Amino acid sequence: MKDLIISRRHFIKNVAMIAASISALPAVNVIAGVLTDVSRMDDLERAVFAKMLKISLPTGDSTLVDPASLPVLPTIEGALLAGMAPNIRQGLRGGISYFNEGSLKAFGDRFINLNDADAIRFVDQWSASSAPPERALSMGIKKLTVLAYWAIPNTWGPLGYDGPVSDKWNLSSLGNTPEPTI
Length: 182
What we know:
The protein is mainly alpha-helical.
């Protein structure tokens, strides 16, 4: 029983670290790390992210670029996962497995095997859950997926966005602005 409590606490601590890391991603420049065997996605992770990509970015009747035609999964792997600290990456790997199994009780099958309508309902249920690990995992996996899609410049055209003005105007970087002092 003591091992179960420690494992549960360790899991919740890792989920909290993952959620904090994911929520900080838009605030910092994502720097791709070195892709190692430890940071590479396994087959389950690829399937979970592929399913999340399919249900999170339905571009069918729009001018948006079809995610299936873009290297979204390699972007997730190379730009986001490769840069994670090993302990956070390992926690995310366990969290993705937990997320995939989470739909068994309510939907009778794993997330990757659900039809699209049930997969959307499952993600919505976990996103609105009162349990922090469920909210963190569903919103974190979805956020990583959507961030990777929009990180690909080919997706910007239909929005009328032609890239950062700092690049177009050849503005040199002045670095980060320091925090104000009181």
